[in-house]
């Protein structure tokens, strides 16, 4: 149980376009979802935390107008990278938790390459 | 959350036990020790967590020193598939802070 999926697993786009990444909890209702970014040979950096039905809380230095997060249901959160540029190329990973449990369940990640 | 220190890399022979250390000398009484691992180009995977007692599950054992200032993750019989970056994370239980702060972790390479 506690499976989290992401779609797509990889995407290549042109500079200036927008890209949407989906994160789904397959067998549980995720009250909270997290979005991380990981550059090559670096650790995961938390971008934002989102609770179902409310606005996401962004970490310091993360542009909320560039990285739009929607958590419209208990099983789906989306991250939209708007007007993507090559420096946005990264590995984007979501995680989800339910209820008051501390454990986070991670998705497999989405590799974004902006040309 | 308290800071953790881990060696950047370790090697282990296949079939042998892998012992991964973590120093968390500033840990508070209400902070848990969590271990996650990340296989290359995949999302992190939860391994185990503990407060002060030693813990064991189907994946690993967690040994926490009596003063709680350090811990060791033990993979009893490492396989090639255990090659990954292992992250030791200290975090408060409860409240509304569910964030995980990942450090640089330890790259464990299991050799045949």
Reconstruct the topology from this structure:
The complex is a heterodimer of chains A (115) and B (112).
Chain A: E1 4-7, E2 10-13, E3 19-25, E4 32-38, E5 45-51, E6 57-58, E7 67-73, E8 76-81, E9 90-97, E10 105-106, E11 110-114
Chain B: E1 9-13, E2 18-23, E3 31-38, E4 45-50, E5 55-56, E6 61-64, E7 70-75, E8 84-92, E9 106-111
Parallel strand pairs in B: 1-9
Antiparallel strand pairs in B: 2-7, 3-4, 3-8, 5-6, 6-7, 8-9
Q: What does this entry look like structurally?
A:
- The complex is a heterodimer of chains A (115) and B (112).
- Chain A is mainly β.
- Helices cover 0% and strands 51% of the residues of chain A.
- Chain A has no helices and eleven strands.
- Chain A has strands at residues 4-7, 10-13, 19-25, 32-38, 45-51, 57-58, 67-73, 76-81, 90-97, 105-106, 110-114.
- In chain A, strands 2, 4, 5, 6, 9, 10 and 11 form a seven-stranded mixed β-sheet that branches. Chain A has a four-stranded antiparallel β-sheet with strand order 1-3-8-7, with no helix packed on it.
- Chain A is globular.
- The termini of chain A are far apart.
- The mean pLDDT of chain A is 93.
- Chain B has 112 residues and is mostly beta strands.
- Helices cover 0% and strands 46% of the residues of chain B.
- Chain B is built from no helices and nine strands.
- Chain B has strands at 9-13, 18-23, 31-38, 45-50, 55-56, 61-64, 70-75, 84-92, 106-111.
- In chain B, the strands form two sheets. Chain B has a five-stranded mixed β-sheet, with no helix packed on it.
- In chain B, a hairpin with a 4-residue loop joins strand 5 and strand 6 (61-64).
- Chain B starts with 8 loop residues before the first strand and ends with a strand.
- Chains A and B meet through strand 4, strand 5, strand 9 and strand 10 of A and strand 4 of B.
């Amino acid at each position: 149980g506690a499976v989290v999926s992401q779609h797509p697993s990889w995407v290549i786009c042109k500079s200036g376009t927008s890209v949407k990444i989906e994160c789904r909890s397959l067998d549980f209702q995720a009250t909270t979802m997290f979005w991380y970014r990981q550059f090559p040979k670096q650790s995961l950096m938390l971008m934002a935390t989102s609770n179902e039905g409310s606005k996401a809380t962004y970490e310091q230095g993360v542009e909320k107008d560039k990285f739009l997060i929607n958590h419209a249901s208990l099983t789906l959160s989306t991250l939209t990278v708007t007007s993507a540029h090559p420096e946005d190329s990264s590995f984007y990973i979501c995680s989800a938790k339910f209820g008051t449990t501390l454990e986070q369940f991670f998705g497999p990640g989405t590799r974004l390459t902006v040309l | 959350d308290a800071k953790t220190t881990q060696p950047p890399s370790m090697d282990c022979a296949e079939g042998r036990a892998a012992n991964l250390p973590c120093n968390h000398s500033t840990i508070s009484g209400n902070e848990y020790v969590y271990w996650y691992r990340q296989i290359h180009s995949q999302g992190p995977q939860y391994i185990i967590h503990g407060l002060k007692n030693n813990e064991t599950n189907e994946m690993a054992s967690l040994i926490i020193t009596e003063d709680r200032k350090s811990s060791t993750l033990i993979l009893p019989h490492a396989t090639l598939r255990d090659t990954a970056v292992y992250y030791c994370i200290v975090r408060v239980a409860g409240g509304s802070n569910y964030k995980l702060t990942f450090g640089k972790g330890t790259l464990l390479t299991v050799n045949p």
